[in-house]
Amino acid sequence: MKFRTTKLTLLLSLVIFFIFSISICFAQINTRSEINIPDIPGYLTLKCDLHTHTVFSDGAVWPTVRVEEAWQEGLDAISITDHIEYLPHKEDVKPNHNRPYEIAKPRADELGIILIKGTEITRGMPPGHFNAIFLQDVDPLDTKEWRDAIKAANDQGAFVFWNHPGWRQPDEIPIWYDEHSELLQQGYFQGIEIVNQDSYYPKAFQWALDKKLAILGNSDVHSPIHNTFDLPNGKHRPITLVFAKQKSEPAIKEALLARRTAVYHNDLLMGEEQFLNPVFEQAIRILNPRVSIKGTSRATIQIHNESDLMIELTSAKTFDEISVPETITLYPGKTIAFQLNGKETTMSGTKQFALPFIAKNFLIAPDKGLSINLNIEVNFTQ
Amino acid sequence: MKFRTTKLTLLLSLVIFFIFSISICFAQINTRSEINIPDIPGYLTLKCDLHTHTVFSDGAVWPTVRVEEAWQEGLDAISITDHIEYLPHKEDVKPNHNRPYEIAKPRADELGIILIKGTEITRGMPPGHFNAIFLQDVDPLDTKEWRDAIKAANDQGAFVFWNHPGWRQPDEIPIWYDEHSELLQQGYFQGIEIVNQDSYYPKAFQWALDKKLAILGNSDVHSPIHNTFDLPNGKHRPITLVFAKQKSEPAIKEALLARRTAVYHNDLLMGEEQFLNPVFEQAIRILNPRVSIKGTSRATIQIHNESDLMIELTSAKTFDEISVPETITLYPGKTIAFQLNGKETTMSGTKQFALPFIAKNFLIAPDKGLSINLNIEVNFTQ
Amino acid sequence: MKFRTTKLTLLLSLVIFFIFSISICFAQINTRSEINIPDIPGYLTLKCDLHTHTVFSDGAVWPTVRVEEAWQEGLDAISITDHIEYLPHKEDVKPNHNRPYEIAKPRADELGIILIKGTEITRGMPPGHFNAIFLQDVDPLDTKEWRDAIKAANDQGAFVFWNHPGWRQPDEIPIWYDEHSELLQQGYFQGIEIVNQDSYYPKAFQWALDKKLAILGNSDVHSPIHNTFDLPNGKHRPITLVFAKQKSEPAIKEALLARRTAVYHNDLLMGEEQFLNPVFEQAIRILNPRVSIKGTSRATIQIHNESDLMIELTSAKTFDEISVPETITLYPGKTIAFQLNGKETTMSGTKQFALPFIAKNFLIAPDKGLSINLNIEVNFTQ
Amino acid sequence: MKFRTTKLTLLLSLVIFFIFSISICFAQINTRSEINIPDIPGYLTLKCDLHTHTVFSDGAVWPTVRVEEAWQEGLDAISITDHIEYLPHKEDVKPNHNRPYEIAKPRADELGIILIKGTEITRGMPPGHFNAIFLQDVDPLDTKEWRDAIKAANDQGAFVFWNHPGWRQPDEIPIWYDEHSELLQQGYFQGIEIVNQDSYYPKAFQWALDKKLAILGNSDVHSPIHNTFDLPNGKHRPITLVFAKQKSEPAIKEALLARRTAVYHNDLLMGEEQFLNPVFEQAIRILNPRVSIKGTSRATIQIHNESDLMIELTSAKTFDEISVPETITLYPGKTIAFQLNGKETTMSGTKQFALPFIAKNFLIAPDKGLSINLNIEVNFTQ
């Protein structure tokens, strides 16, 4: 409608191009996107990736890259877990199991990333691959027998977990071998990946619940992170959420041993109800929990989702007085509106409703969504 | 690295297509993106657009569309201000100055949008166009003489402001006519648009400061909002920030009359220091205000910007002990890192710094950025 | 690595903000995104939406908005088809069935959009809603009996089609009533919507194939288009592809009567094999159809998809000599790479392969994907 | 308007999550975005980056990453040019100047990327850093004296160019030293970077024009490419466009020696008019070059820009008969519309116009945009 004549010299225009190139580059390198998953009562919700690789085994990046990626993506802690036994770059990169940590540690300290020394014990199935983290020295784990390696890790007080249990199994379904029972009885592993990169193993999730293992979900990233996960389109690497008493390496270890973890994979959040329920409660807020409905007209409820978590709700019950949507999607960071409709023209007075829904992408077991209630009050008029 | 064989029937795939189309449509219509500009001590920061049009004058949308757009974009209040004198659709749309409000009000109530009854008095320059809002009845403003119209508005206790003062003036530079002095002396207008759609009038900003007028920035939108502003690419309509004691129509009026406003236009925030300073203070947080520097090495400071505001800082002072970046861009919703470098190898002990910067896109006058300090403490070691 | 000191005055920075706001606004309003769906031998592939609404019935936009939206989204032709019988705005907008066309036509001519005069005959089921397009005058269709309205449309030589046949039916599954048989026998309707807004009716698709009706997919848009379809995230309104001898209104009518149409809905393309096959052939190109494989090593094939169509291929056959991917996704506008692996170490010589795939989102019947071949030549060495 | 009830089991929903994660990952890794910059008569327009680093000097990625990034971003050719003299990883990565090429070559062959063996001779200023490409063996360039290194490169028939000439100079303005004159007289370097990463050196551009050096623009990328350039937001690394007789390594070398290059940096295209003019001509198409104007009414011209190049036009002349926009922005891949307005009511008859514009971001010299004409025909009526 209105127009402003703008007379710019060529020179000025070029200045603009420069400014833009500067700020964009800066944005890329020096910008961190926090992951908004709320803390829960009593615990900080730390975002961790405890399985990554570098050029020191079969990865494609220098160790500092893993720290910088983690900082940019909003992680609190990572572990570089290069293979002990598989060193395809050894002609060019001098084998040294402790070097990735040494190289990356100063950058981690500078950026405030908790870097946990770790490694991947890489053997055929059974028992398959195991990560050992919180190590002092990786070298003692470089043994001929896998039992010796896992024992050496435990001797250092490591937290040991079974990696991608379904990898290379038929249909990616994990198999529990006698060797795993043996290790479990010895207390030699304390966790299991139920998600690795783009694979989710429901069977491993159930094992973890039954056998009291901590659940983990990690990236197992080898390439630059952007080559593996479509970050600009809102995707993220799998993340192990650790509910820790403080933001420190010892607190992460304590929480892992106490099995206070959840796994965030694509739009799925997986973990025990005792953790997922408070995450949900902290994430959402009903903006207008009290509404009026006249006869069979409608009322609009607005819910704000403070978190980065997509939450898909499915109604678990119908009511005589009001109709409730079958599904509600609470988009991350957004406020959404949905309608309640009166069913009868004769209702009057105020009534409390605990509308029960299943958060179907908050899994408290492989096939079980978290049950939640939306508490509202309706004032019926005629 | 790992692969999962997925055998899907055609049917299943189709189901997926459907699901996606549902959720996306839902997202569009029923989703609100809140605008994160913090409240300031003592006041809520309400986001308002007090100048919009519909098919009832020369706009292209039904009045309810203005309410729905406002809700989706995170606004708290709008006014539909159709022209009194310019009714190009009158052959098809029955002229009725009060109808846009009447039609839109139920939808506004349902969605919790504060809808303020208004109109645009649309005369040649001088005095040009004026909006009158908080009206009870628009009809008395439909007069032959413009002085009568503006008087009629004031008689209803309206808040009256001069629209797009530079429109159709040479180089879009506003001109202050005798008629404006006359109106000002009578107390017949209380505000002025310093931004209208994509035009910013620095001269009007200075007038407002000098003559004690409230500043406003409004969209003057005629088309569907997406046709005028590139919302999906992070652009937004101009917004009048109103610092109100509560979220209500009377509170907005009280704040406007008290000149407690600011204007948010593209990446510019404009207003008096008393408002912009607390907005800045509430928006940012230094995550690690205490750092150590050894000799001439570097320390990294991280700042989180909680708001949706891009903030461009320029250093206002150099220091003998440390070098500070010339510019820092605090991206909306992000954490950014910047380096301090020690300048001498002989420093030791702890020192407090109030690093002075100009927030160059927070304008407290047409050519003056807001001065702020970043308070940090450096522990120097050797 | 390298750094350039940039000293900018505040003024200069502000200039930059302005420039950006200008160019973005311009981009929105005056920019058209062409839809890249290739022409096929003998015909132009015209993109049409033959079902839209305005404030003249129950829509929310002025008629010119429909033309501008169509131009921006890359359409060639639209019809505004306001309801005859349902006029909820009649208190404010003077009923006139021919006005939407009259108002929108000059804008359509200016922008090169083919605007087809139409209307929606809006009756209860049976027979439900029917669009009549290519009308000279809508008024004669405003009759008491629906049979008279449909006859009046046919008397004007209109193309008549059944809208959203599953709407408000149980589970949205369409029901064929005697009245539809009656109309079909009279030759009184020639097409059927198999897609309307976000609903796809497989049963209607099968009816169209069996009963020789043209298939259509239309938006039925009432709100501003951005409120209904998430265009910035790559979504699009349903489109009726018309394979026409030229870009003109008569050519579109001829093609519709000859049933040369397809429907483009989300990522689905639906139509007869005679149309979908040449679309596929024109859309993709194998960049390196001749490769060498040594023993059991791999070769990489690259395919470029020139079109805006996502194409999902599923392998339809296994081979003794080479392993072929189970699925290949040809992303719109991209080149993708996939691997062929040799299965035997003893192969030698050159062999032609017609690798059969099903394009599972190119539907030639409700449950049948298009069969295509990727023709390559492998030179086996040892 | 219409609604479909969708009853999905939890299981089905989970399947959907999986499918999406698969396809996205596939997209990232196996998808190439072609760069649409048209070929020009007689030559292919090859997209090259002739300056990149890996872990073998001070880079942060394995050599194969450089090839994969290049393929994904639509490049035709790259050179890995690790420093000879600066090897900060030498404790961990065994120094070997030829290894990056050897490691990356098989992946380049598989993906069809032309990999050119190169290196960076890295000395203090003067003469600064020089890249030597098309080498057979890098080792002979590892000499004590820089003159010997550059001579050794030339002895192998290398193409040698001066890198980032303004780097670490005051205000990043390059300085021409006697040593550069010496090298130039000997014919020992044949090109110069006018763009390196985010720095553009106008002075180097002018030198190249005056002294008959080939111009180059390269990324000098050290980190993963996504850490340096904001690719998802439409940014790109600097690219040396090589106008080659065919797509082959020898053809690239021939073109470089013949100075048939241009530089594509942010939205700038820089090069001689003989190359930029045909690029422009091939990139754009006036869709309706013949229009009618009645009196002082308007006509709309539509121009399609087939390329990925943003093109900013500024009007270079006014006309008595028609008013022409001061600026036109031809967005990449879009059709844009602009208006011509008649200036007089008395014009009649048909007239040809060659509307002169400056493409201000197509630089044929540091301060000179390309002159182009838009040829149209106006039929004036009254």
Describe this structure in words.
- The structure is a homotetramer of 382-residue chains.
- Chain A is α/β, with parallel strands linked by helices.
- Chain A folds into two domains: 33-266, Alpha-Beta Barrel (TIM Barrel); 285-381, Immunoglobulin-like (Sandwich).
- The first copy, chain A, is built from nine helices and 21 strands.
- Chain A has helices at 10-30, 63-72, 99-111, 146-155, 178-185, 202-211, 225-228, 249-257, 273-283, and strands at 31-32, 44-52, 77-80, 114-122, 129-133, 159-162, 191-196, 199-200, 214-218, 239-244, 261-265, 268-271, 284-286, 290-294, 298-305, 311-315, 322-323, 327-330, 335-342, 349-365, 368-381.
- In chain A, α2 links the parallel β2 (44-52) and β3 (77-80).
- In chain A, α2 packs parallel to α3.
- The first copy, chain A, is elongated, with a radius of gyration of 25 Å.
- The interface between A and D is large, with 59 and 61 residues.
